[in-house]
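Lab meeting, item 3. Inverse folding demo.
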């Protein structure tokens, strides 16, 4: 769980420009924890599988929340970046037009 939280923080705040459109870790973790939960649902020894099932379920929920948060953060940054580029492009175009007229 600590590794998932650490990766989320590193990916979204430290290495954001290098990991901007990488989402592949989340479907892999969802598939892995779903398989683990499926295997632990009906173990041969009920006492051993119950604690692991709870931990795997909590970790799957954590990964799902992290994926949704990552998508929301990425869309928000994309919109913010596109609004800034539109605002900065107009003065540059006006300068080019004034240079062409003169």
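The presenter then showed the designed sequence:
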């Amino acid at each position: 769980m600590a590794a998932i939280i650490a990766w989320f923080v590193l990916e979204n705040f430290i290495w954001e420009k290098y990991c901007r459109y990488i989402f592949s870790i989340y479907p892999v973790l969802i598939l892995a924890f779903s398989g683990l939960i499926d295997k632990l649902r009906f173990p041969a020894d009920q006492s051993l599988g119950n604690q692991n099932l709870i931990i795997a379920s909590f970790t799957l929920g954590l990964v799902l929340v992290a994926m949704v948060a990552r998508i929301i953060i990425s869309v928000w940054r994309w919109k913010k970046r596109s609004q800034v580029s539109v605002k900065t492009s107009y003065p540059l175009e006006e300068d080019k037009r004034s240079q062409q007229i003169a």
